[in-house]
Structure formats: structure tokens, C-alpha cells
Amino acid sequence: AQLVEILIGGDDELKPSSNSFVTWFSPGVPFEATDFDFASKGLGSGATAEEEKRLLDQSYLFSTLVDFAPDASGLLNLDQQQTIYRSAQNRMSHMYGEILKLARVADEELTPEQQAKLENWRSKLQTTKTVKDLVTDEEKQITEDSPTVKEYNKYMAASMAARTNYNSKRIMAEVATGVEGKQAVVDWKYNGTMYRDAAHAALQTWIANGYKNEVEQLRAAIDAVTGRSMRLWVDRLKKNLADSEISGLLPGSTFYPATVAPSNFVASSGWTKYGLTSSHLTESLRDKSTSWEAGGGFNMGLWRASADAKKTDSTHDENKSLSSFEISFELAQVAIIRPWFYPEFFQNRGWDLQAGHGWTFSELPSDGARPPNGLLIGYPTMIIFARNIRIKSGELVQILSTYAKSLEAGGSVGYGPFSVKGKYARSESGRDFDSKEQGETLEVPGIQAIAHIVQLIPKSPNLHPDLKPENLV
After folding, report:
1. Phi, psi angle pair for 9, to nearest 5°
2. pTM
């Protein structure tokens, strides 16, 4: 609950988002620092075929990890929603492609002047480049963000990091208790204004140097024009999606690339330190851990990460009560960048999906309710990483150690959103990783992806009342 407050919460100074929720991994997905070379170096930069294959494989694995249609059926919280990531969820790219393919749209012919404006605006947001397919050896054009949009994304990520730091300091002071909590209270007392000003300054820097207003005004202008003639726009979106598809190294594998901003986040200074003890679990935050629909408690207990992992001893208790508990770690909130995806499409009211015109799915993308229902209720915009995880609890160390030892080879185990024993998501050596026990302290190595932040889309489709379904094409 405290992490949800830090990631998407807010106060009167920095308003929280009402259209986001957190999706937790269960448990976290481990990475090595070199797993993000594809983001910092870029595809096509490999000096050798072997290096290029490694970058391509990294891009495939990360892009697949963030390519999912969120499932809100298990939302967990009354005002700051949470749910659990399920690897079997539909691919976001597939549902987006189906929606574009089957959408019936308004089609008012644009003048040559309007078409020229559209092309000019689009050229400022997206560019195309020619790349060679590593598998088929054929050249193809792919769409990517323009330099302007790349700057937009970079400063957006910096603004989000400053906001996360502000929320972290605020929450740590609010829940502080006892002698160990005094430092957090004093820090907030003297530096709270500085953290707030830093968040506001990061936003202003995004506006001044990151083209925030310009990019968003361009997107709004495109939306206003294409709302009258969506056919050309949708054709362009479908082409961008098709051109972006890349062949993976596995036979028959294709994917739509995603990357991160900032690309060098592993080595950046944008990691926020966070910690809590069992005494910090105040009544107000306990209330935020209740189920959205049923009102029951939610257990972030022991999980096995891999479906094929087997235990030699099948008994364990997911509801162990701990008399004492301390945890500390660092967080980085990293933006997910997908040049082929255009979420503004869902803001537009000039399109519809109709059962008699190819739409055969049982649900529409989103009913816009809270919690929402549908096939594409939102899309992951940020991925949350943790590192330097230290857990101090003699009871928990013993529980995890006993449980991990009873797993057969290949198994993995975690507590809450953290993985403490398992395999790296990708490593040339294919090596396992394991936490280290230091008395009552458990030290977890490396970097882990522990959550996504999902942005909800509005009711979709939501045809404008002035448009008639029979007049769409």
C-alpha cells in the first residue's frame, strides 16, 4: 500500500492520478545490468553478428514482458488500485492491431491543405529508418520517435523520478514511528519544501527543454483534424504497426519493439531509497490493502514464480505472521517507449466496433467503468525496478530458507513482489541467483522488475452522438 502511494499517489501539491493502477509481478523478474544494452546502444549497433543477436534477443525479451493487455478482474484497492501481473494475459499489440483492423470510422474527405498539415505535424513526432531483418536479411522501414519526442520522453522520465522521490519522502514521514522514524520526520520538516520544489522544477524543465507542451499540442492538433477523417489516420496507424514488427531469433517469433527511458537508468542517479518496518503499517495504510470488490484482505505472501517448479515438500503456509520486519531497497520508475502505439486513438470519438462488421470478440476494449471491464482497459506506461534489497526478519529468513531448500532444481521463490531465489531473465551464462543470509538479514542481489504502472483508457469505443453507425466506413 505504501509503494502504491509512492508510485501513483499524491497530495494537494502534486495531485494523484485517478486513471492509473499498479500491476505487481509475483514475484519480481530478475535482470542483470547488461540486459538493457539494447536500450542504451540501440538495435543495429552491434559490432559483430553475435553482438547484434544478443541485442535483438534482449529487445525481444523485454518487449514481450511489457506487451500485455492488463486484467482488472483482480483489482485490489478502493482508491489506489492494484492487481497482479499474469503472463497468460492477451498481448496488447495484438488487441491494438485487431481494434485498428476492425474499427469502422468517420470519413470526411480532407482538403489538400489539411493533408499537408497532417504530414508536417506527423514528421515532427515520428521518423522512419531502414533496417535489415537479421533473420530474413531483407531491408524494411520501421517507425520510431523523432528526436523531439525522444527529448520529451527523457524529461518526462526525470519528472516522474522527482515526483516519486517527493511521494517517498512524504509517505516515510507520515508513517514514521519510534526512534528509527525520527530521521524521516526531521528530513521532511526541513527538506519537504525542497523535494516539492524539485518535483515542480522537473516539470518546468520538461516544459522548457523537453517539448512537453509542443508535443502534446501537436498530438491534439492531429486528433482534431483526423476526427473528421479517421480513415487516413487509421491507415497510417496500421502501417506504423505493421512496419514496426521485428523477427526474433526463435523460429516463427515476431515482436513489436519497446524500450525504456532513460535508456541508461541502471547507472543513473534516479534511484530512490525506501524502507519500512512492521511498526509503519499504520491503520490508514491497512485500509488501503482491502479488496476493491469483496472488501476482504489481500495477502502478499509466498509465491512460486515458475509454473514448472516442483517442491519435494508440498506443504507451506502463505499467511505466516511476522512479529518483526524491516525492509529497505532502491526504486527506479522507468518509462516504457513504444513508437508503434498511439494511445490518443482511444480519446477519439469518431470510430466504432460492430459485431456485424467483423468484431467477433465477446467484449469491447473498455466500458470505462471503475473497475473497468474489457479486452484492452489500459496499457503499461512505466516499469518499476528495485535493487539493493535487504530484508531483516529472523522469522522470514527461516521461512524462505526452508521453502527454497525444498524446491527442486529450476524453481524460484519470492515474498511479495520480490524474488529471492530464481533465474535471471536473460544471461549468457544462464546462471541462477540466490539471496545471501547474514544472520537475520536477507540480501537479494541484482535488479528486479517488481511492477508496472498501467494507464487506463476511457470508454472505448465511445462514438460521438452526432455520428451515425451506419455512416461509418
Report:
1. -85, -170
2. 0.79
